[in-house]
Amino acid sequence: MTEQTIESVSHENRIFPPPPEFAARARIGSREEYERLYRESIENPEAFWLARAAELTWAKPPTRAIHWNPPEARFFEDGELNVSVNCLDRHVEAGLGDRVAILWEGEPGEVRRVTYRELLEEVSRLANLLRSLGAKPGDRVGIYMGMVPEVAVAMLACARLGLVHTVIFGGFAADAIRDRLNDAGARFVITQDGAHRRGKILPLKPQVDQALTAVPSVEKVIVLERTRQPIDWVEGRDLAWHEHVGAQSSDAAPAIVSAEHPLFILYTSGTTGKPKGVLHTSAGYLLGTSLTARYVFDLRDDDIYWCTADVGWITGHSYIVYGPLSNAATVLMYEGAPNQPDEGRFWDIVQRHRVTILYTAPTAIRQFIRWGDEHPKKRDLSSLRLLGSVGEPINPEAWVWYHEVIGGGRCPIVDTWWQTETGAIMMSPLPGAIATKPGSCCVPFFGVVPKIVDERGHEVPAGSGGFLVIEQPWPSMLRTVYGDEKRFRESYFGAYPGRYFTGDGARRDEDGYFWVMGRVDDVVNVSGHRLGTAEIESSLVAHPDVAEAAVVGRPDELKGQALVAFVTLKEHAEPSPELAAKLSEHVANDIGRFARPEEIRFAPVLPKTRSGKIMRRILKSLADNRVPEGDVTTLEDPSVLNALLGK
Ligand code: PRX
Question: What domains are defined for the chain?
Answer without folding.
Answer: 20-81+277-486+495-518 (3.40.50.12780), 120-255 (3.40.50.980), 527-645 (3.30.300.30)
